[in-house]
Specification:
mainly alpha
């Protein structure tokens, strides 16, 4: 690998690995599987990636590739029932309510997880999510709406605490 390509690869890893790991973890709820998915994504970046127009195009490609790797993992025979643990999204010091919200997020259908994560944790706009995941804006809005409703229904127990 030439020095320029190595530098680009290292820069991409430094910028995006943490975010991509969190997306993978949302789907797998397993540290080692998430690391494997992350590794596969960066192998694809190194050997099979297209030419990118700019850094946003590269970031979108990485997110979409991660999402697709997660879907492949969930369909594969390697899939097993994965326990949820306290390393939710890489953050350890949360109160019980925040951990419960994150556990509920992990249990959502995969089509809602990435959209909710990008919107609430990465501050993506609906338009950015649509472009990144090759979805229509109305589809992204619907997934956000349904994902929120599912979380709200799951978290009804907290509505009486006010």
């Amino acid at each position: 690998m030439d020095k320029e390509k190595e530098k680009e690869f290292n820069t991409a890893y430094d910028l995006y690995a943490d975010m991509l790991y969190k997306i993978a973890y949302l789907h797998t709820a397993d540290k080692s599987e998430s690391e494997d998915i992350l590794q596969e994504v960066f192998i694809k970046l190194l050997y099979k990636s297209p030419s990118f127009k700019d850094s946003e195009h590269k970031k979108a490609w990485l997110i979409k590739t991660t999402n697709n790797q997660c879907k492949d993992f969930l369909k594969s025979s390697r899939r097993k029932t994965l326990p949820l643990n306290d390393e939710i999204l890489g953050e350890e010091n949360f109160d019980d309510k925040k951990l419960d919200v994150r556990n509920k997020l992990l249990k959502l259908d995969s089509k809602y997880k990435t959209v909710l994560y990008l919107y609430y944790y990465e501050d993506y706009t609906v338009e950015m999510i649509a472009g990144t995941l090759s979805l229509s804006k109305s589809n992204v809005k619907m997934r956000l709406k349904r994902g929120r409703e599912l979380l709200k229904n799951e978290l009804e127990e907290y509505s009486n605490e006010r």
